[in-house]
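Reopening this one. Same input as before:
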Amino acid sequence: MSKPTAATVHTELIRHETECAERWKTNFKHLEKMDTDISFIKRWMLAGLFTISMTLLSFVLSTI
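Same output, byte for byte:
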């Protein structure tokens, strides 16, 4: 195995940076989708909490 030259190291580094840039682009797309999904789940949970709270409040008020 020969010692790498500056030119081969530079070429490998450029290739590596290109691959990493593509991976990060894909990663950010997935993170944005996860943020959207988490926001959707949060809204549903808050709506469910509101529904449960109103149901319990109606039970309490109806027994008075």
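So the earlier flakiness isn't reproducible anymore. For the record, Residues 3 and 48 are 65 Å apart (CA to CA).
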